[in-house]
Design goal:
mainly alpha, Cytochrome Bc1 Complex, Chain D, domain 2, disordered N terminus
């Protein structure tokens, strides 16, 4: 598969005050970090588990025994770090429509070409580049399908 260079120059809005980081999609992955910095799995776990920010548990079930009413519309997060590479996880977080054009997963790091976006969120990514890296770092820790998902 040929490399697809994607460079965004659109402003991410007042929430982040900077342009979206450029990235390259190659063979179904974004291999390079959006920030050049490693993600923090503890911060990533907090984002995944929070219903107001990440919203992940609305559709996914995961290793969050303290969180009731987890979703079943999407694959479980249990074991996702063993199923998908870091780059594949990053691409799904940035914009899962690159993997599956019919996905119901929101594009967490895209601002253009979207429909049905609340006025307050227009022009702003759902997560900034570091938050994407934090979530990816956490998801990579989920290697065992039965793991409780608590960080030590």
């Amino acid at each position: 598969m040929r490399a697809l260079a994607v460079a965004f120059a659109l402003l991410s809005g007042a929430a982040y005050g900077q342009a979206l980081a450029p990235f390259q999609i190659e063979d179904g992955e974004i291999r390079a970090s959006l920030t050049g910095q490693p993600g923090d799995p503890a911060r990533g776990r907090a984002i995944v588990g929070e219903r107001q920010k990440g919203l992940c548990l609305l559709c996914h079930k995961g290793p969050f025994p303290e969180t009731p009413f987890q979703g079943d519309l999407a694959p479980t997060l249990n074991g996702v770090g063993a199923r998908l590479s870091e780059g594949a996880l990053r691409l799904r977080m940035v914009d899962g429509a690159n993997v599956n054009p019919q996905t119901i997963m929101p594009a967490y790091y895209r601002v253009d070409g979207l429909t049905r976006v609340a006025p307050a969120l227009r022009g702003k990514p759902l997560l900034n580049a570091q938050e994407i890296e934090d979530v990816v770092a956490y998801l990579l820790t989920l290697k065992d399908g039965d793991a409780p998902g608590r960080l030590k």
